[in-house]
Amino acid sequence: MRKLLVAGSAASFAALALGGSASGQSGSSAPPRTQEAAFTPPAAPVTPKGDQHDDYHGTRVADPYRWLEQLGAPAVDAWIAEQNKVATPYLEALPDRAAIAERLQKLWNFERYGVPTLRGGRYFYSFNPGLANHSVLMVSDAIDAEPRVLINPNTFSADGTVSLAGQSISPDGSLIAYAKSDGGSDWRDWFFRRVDDGEDLDDRLSFMKFGSLSWARDGSGVYYSRYPAGPDGAGDDAQPTSVFFHRLGAPQSEDVLVHDVSTMARHRGLRPNTNARATEDGRYVVLNVRAGYHENQVHVLDLQDPDGTPRPVVGAWSAQFSFVGNDGTQFFFETTDGAPKSRIVAIDVDSPERAKWREVVPEDDDPLRGVSFVGGRLIATYLHDVKTRVRVFGTDGSVERDIELPGVGSARGFGGESGQTTTFYSFTSFATPTEVWAYDIPTGESTLFKRPSVPFDPEQFVTEQVWYASRDGTRVPMFVTCRRDLARDGKRPTLLYGYGGFNVSLTPSYSTVRMVWLERGGVLAIPNLRGGGEFGKEWHLAGTRDRKQNVFDDFIAAAEWLIESGYTSREHLGIQGGSNGGLLVGACMTQRPDLFGACLPAVGVLDMLRYHRASANARNWSTDYGLSENAEDFASQYAYSPVHNARAACYPPTLVTTADHDDRVVPWHSYKFAAAVQSAQGCDNPVLLHVETRAGHGAGKPTWMQIEHAANALAFLSEHTKDSP
């Protein structure tokens, strides 16, 4: 049951905005597009080639653009400037760019709310009135009370490039720890603020990246994981993280070491890392030890144990275990152990032998994608054919009910503590901006908290889920969204977006950028490629290491299906993806340059032979990609690595994008790929590299920069997928 809840008005603080079909084949060459006489493609800069060669298991591999890996070198900076000097004027002069940017501004300008967190009787949630560079963090004393601003990241920097990168609220709601990221970097510094008066404490924590903080139950301090300091005084992510306890009021140099994994043996050739989560009852600290993305160990520190030594609860590298919550010594875990689609088990930490584990919720036909322990219940989120369904269980595994969602789409949230009677969740779909709902745990009633008002009619658009056959016959689902009145005449500009990796699921979600594309008559197609998590562990593994080509085959088959089904044709079909999705675009365009009308690889992993040399964090990706030091991995990587497969052909119009502060997927991937394709280009189609400054992998990017980037991408896509004159 669902009803409307009238919450506090946002009007009083709205103004704060101002303060991822032939494998391994190049295919036939694509003919160059006809260009308007007044809009001539720019000539790419000529990139000098070095004579670097490397021997991989007896194969001599050229790496002529190795010199572009020297980030910050004057020659590299000058080369970037030359690339931007060509790309920027071209993008700014694209015929549709001004109209697209204007519509992005208008459609972006609506109120957006995050899912509330309840602590100590207070409600904390994010809010953006529309065009603020960053959402602010609000707090209120009741869910329907007028909120006040607690943290406004729009004041962190004049240009909006310093962002709020995380927060953690104390159990009594009196303090909040919050992180800042500078210029999109994954490195974060953490600060502490009193909720009552908004004043910061003197405490500051550094040398941290992805991990969050976990508060001691009494609020005296936090457990956190950090890297050691390197010779230059900065964090050294080539070393493993360790868990420390920071007591408020003390300098970080006095923090107490809780868990050190530096002496543990490598797993899959990777150094183990660890992070911590204190249990709600205040007695235990759960230590997640990970090496890569496929398996982990779990150790537990009993704070009442006078020895103060963590002991293993899951001591083998056998499966994934995610701590959900505990009832005394009974610890609940979501795990892939014996269940490729995951199940929930209970382990008594005083008797953790595997024979004594209790299965609470068995594996379902649908993959389990998240569990929370709130209000004395286990709330489990599943994906049924890539759409969310949610079921509530008792701690004995009994089924209490299914949660009725507002529609067919994606739901997330359901967090909280065991004593709460209310939790919150978000819901979205391709034409539904994110709504926030409150869920009453005892009654099963959902109540609307916030629903945004947007200046378009969602009924204009329709989403269809289709299934198509990949090269090996595997059935792959794909969401296709377009206007209801769209003629299927084979001429529709179509954006095919994909990811296909790291167990990530692409579920229905709203995007202002994509809505602008749809409004303009474009088709949006999002396939759920192997390598993702949409159908459990086996689906994920089917797109990893020596099976990575399956991902590209799935994407190529999606493109062919869209053409065969009359939605579009080659010259009207654009492909886009970021990060691992950038690899996807790079691999597919080098394998099938004849199949696409435009290509947009963003912040991509594009040199598969050297990606792991960029950082210790990148080496962890080897669970999906493998390592070129291994002969079998090298053979599969070399066959698809975009940098190494850019051979002479007529490539589609291509816009490669990256950012100078990206320390997750370092920008030299994009530099080397752009240089390789520019050199190999056999026709007049433009191949551009655009490098953003004061930006990183994507997180924390201010609104103005997001709109600029989106306007460039959509205008480029529009120009090169529309009908030629």
Give a short overview:
The chain is of the alpha+beta class.
Task: Tell me what the structure shows.
The protein is α+β, with helices and mostly antiparallel strands and 725 residues long. Strands 33-34-36-35-37-38-39-40 form an eight-stranded mixed beta sheet, sandwiched between helices. The radius of gyration is 25 Å and the shape is globular. Residues 1-38 have low confidence and may be disordered.
What global shape is seen? globular
Task: Give the integer mean of the pLDDT values.
Answer: 93
Q: Please state roughly what percent of the residues sit in beta strands, choosing from under 5%, 5-15%, 15-25%, 25-35%, 35-45% or over 45%.
A: 25-35%
Contiguous helical run count: 11
Can you give the helix content as a percent range?
10-25%
**Unreliable stretches covering 5 or more consecutive residues:** 1-38
* Biggest β-sheet strands, sense, barrel: 8 strands, mixed
| Strand ordering within the main sheet | 33-34-36-35-37-38-39-40
* Total beta strands: 40
Taking Cα atoms only, what radius of gyration do you get, to the nearest Å?
25 Å
The N- and C-terminal alpha carbons lie at a distance of 54 Å
Task: Report the structural category.
Answer: alpha+beta
